[in-house]
Structure formats: C-alpha cells, structure tokens
Amino acid sequence: MFAAVLDTCVLWPSLQRDFLLSMAVEGLYRPLWSEVILDELEFHEAAKLERRGHGAATAHAAGARLVGTMREYFDDALVTGWEPLEGTFSLPDPDDEHVVAAAVVGGAGVIVTLNRKDFPRERVPRHIQVISPAEFAADTVSVSPAAAARAVEMLATRLARPPMTVDEILDQLVTRYGMDDAVALLRDRE
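Above: the chain's sequence. Below: its structure in token form.
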C-alpha cells in the first residue's frame, strides 16, 4: 500500500487531520509518522486548548488522548530506526530532518507538509515527493472517489462538536484548507 509521512503541520488542524486519516481507514494509503511528529502534535494540541481557556491538565490530557487514539488506530504508522539518518539531508531547518528520515526508513513515496520550502527538492531523496495536503487529498481521492466519499460520510457521523453534515465538511475543506480539487472530485460523483 502507498505510504505517506504526514508532517505535524498537516495533522494539527483537526478537520484536515480527520479527513486525511479517515481516507487511510478506508485503505487509500498508509499514514506514517515519527515519535517527534507525535510529540509535536501532542504539544500543539495542548497549547491550542490552553489558549482557548482549558486548564493545563485538561489540555495536556486531551493532547495525549489524541495521540493515543492515533497510535491505537494506526498501530503500524510509527516509524522507528530513523535516527541514524537525522542530519544527513542538510535541510534548511535541521528540526525537519526527522521527517525525511522517517520517510526513507518507512518507505514513503510522499511527505505531506505545508512547509515545502523547508524540504528543497535537491535535499530530499528523488523517490520521495514533497506535496501539500491539498495536493495529497486530491491525489488520494482520485484513487477511489467512492472510498473517499465513505471516509467523509464516516467523518460526518463522528463529528459532534460541532456536528457537521457531509456538505458542511466539504465546504470547510475548501474554505479552510484549499482542498478544491479533492472536493470537486467528491462532488462530481454525486
């Protein structure tokens, strides 16, 4: 199955994360991440909740719960053994080395990130593409629009705060995340 490393910046916006991971549940690709990505996600989720007025203990528990749920549902997503490669890619931001190292060790064909400038083409192994979440979503939906539609329907049944319909989810994917092409493919099948 096609594998993709999802950078922290892709996993942190909740609706985007839930959409991408719901497509993985449908078998459209295999998500990969490093322990560093999960640690960053837990930190940023807790910080966001604290900024929204949640107490520190509640916020940190929610961040840990999110990462725990991801570990449970995607128990084969964690890439280990990438550490010897860290520092070998000479990326502009050394803190991003673990992302490329995880992609190499995990056998990913793609790194999905919003920070493409931090992954210059000449520094990333040729067999790994670096693409935006919007591009990745469109590519993934195009593999099986029916499976992607099931992913959105499943997502709509899980969302509770606030509840959202399939159309509301699709609208948000366009307005908040620029996933126009993926949403067009989904709506074309209706």
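The first strand starts at residue 3 and ends at 6.
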